[in-house]
Prior knowledge:
Helix content is about 25%, strand content about 40%. Strands 4-1-3-2-5 form a five-stranded mixed beta sheet. The termini are far apart.
Amino acid sequence: MNPEARLFTVRGRVQGVWFRDSTRREAERLAITGYAINLPDGSVEVLAWGPPESLRELEAWLQQGPPLARVSKVESRVLTGRKPPPPGFRTG
């Protein structure tokens, strides 16, 4: 299957609980490239590029997050026509 890009917005208690770094580790385990960044409204944005089955696994993981997180909602949308990000997964 061809890789695709998905943009996730994760809401709840997701900043200050190692959410971005834990997301990076999970994405690397799944061979997903992209990024996880904090947004000013307290949510975390995750851009993920990879095989659809890996993206589904990442989305399931985002529903829970790391142990100290309290995820209330994960919004997801497929991005079309997007070029792959540089190799690796970054946080910011």
